[in-house]
Design goal:
75% helix; elongated
């Protein structure tokens, strides 16, 4: 049994871990009003992340920032997927070009690459 497993086998460490996980999961949840733990460290950390303590304007800014973050994240993911698709298209064109140079018939090239005859001949 490794050191990590022995460490978390002790009840006190398990309890602390469960408390931290609870706080991290629930500190921004509008339905969770108060930290259920007595220890000051947990309560203070929970309060720092409690959305209910924000003013109306702060809540609106918070919600807006979450939406903006999601928008940026979605844009980045879209751009990554677009770049992957571009790379695959370029790879197909390179394969088609190589096959044309080897005088492989057009139907075989189209079948293998999935490109049209026009796409193949353009490059």
């Amino acid at each position: 049994m490794g050191t990590f497993a022995r460490l978390f086998k002790k009840t006190e460490y398990k309890e602390a871990l469960h408390r931290w996980l609870y706080i991290i999961k629930n500190m921004g949840d509008e339905n969770t009003q108060e930290c259920p733990f007595e220890d000051e460290i947990y309560r203070e950390f929970f309060e720092q992340g409690n959305v209910n303590k924000l003013s109306t304007m702060e809540k609106e800014d918070y919600a807006k920032s979450i939406l903006e973050y999601q928008e940026v994240k979605d844009t980045i993911e879209f751009e990554r997927e677009y770049a992957r698709a571009e790379g695959r298209a370029e790879e197909k064109l390179a394969i088609a070009k190589s096959m044309l140079e080897k005088e492989i018939d057009m139907n075989t090239i189209i079948s293998i690459t999935g490109l049209t005859a026009e796409e193949t001949l353009e490059n």
